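Hello,

I think I submitted the hypoxanthine job twice by accident. Can you confirm which output corresponds to this input? Input:
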Amino acid sequence: MGKIIDRVNQCLDCVRRKTDFIPRVALILGSGLGDLAEQIDTVCSIDYSEIEGFPQSTVVGHKGRFVLGYIENTPVVIMQGRVHYYEGYSMEDVVLPVRLMHAMGAEILFLTNAAGGLGNGFQCGDLMLITDHIGCLVPNPLLGENEDALGTRFPDMSSVYDKSLQGIIQSASKEVGIQMKEGVYLQLTGPSYETPAEIRMCKVLGASAVGMSTAVEAIAANHMKMKICGISFISNLAAGISETPLCHEEVKAAADAVAPKFQALVKLAIAKM
Ligand code: HPA
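Support: Only one job matched these inputs. Its output is below.
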């Protein structure tokens, strides 16, 4: 496998053959939230299959394409369908899209995901502003030779989620009438959901929500000094807290139900960025 920067540049060449659009915000849409990409002022969309060397998402309900365009006056690139570690990709593949969107010009990374709530007042359907994450239980995407062109060998992680972006999201949530929760997101590899004992462990570690994406994307973006923000949509209560077994269809159905409000919030927040 070649150098990371060569892979990123190869993908960028494919994008640049289609468009010279320069996004400011990169938005990754989580499970069931993909419709937002259909509501923007689209300039161009690019299927992942059109990008040489780009990993393809295999999850049902995840489309695989970039949509580039405007939300109000903010130029955005939206990832409709992300790449997950549990699909069998290397962490380098998992974070390649984030690196590519940065190479396109994005300075801000806006992460969204569906996550299991760990109790403590969190309910199904809640939105949680991510204030920090626990990512050290999955392989770090920066393992291996450092790509100095992207960032430093030992990046500081003391303030990954940007305070001013959090403020913008909080004020947008008030405007659209959403009572936003706040908390720490913990990433596990999946694809199996957690056992009740594992969920008790996550709670002891200080997490509010658990999922299978996002923290590694934030690590790669932080490495490149992007400004980062994120929202978890609490699609279910985690194992042992919920009385019913978990299933992906339930996660998707819950996401569809909250989608209109969530989309309104994300659009308003991005318009202010
Ligand atoms: N656990 C892990 N990932 C998830 C969950 C969950 O309960 N819900 C949505 N993504």
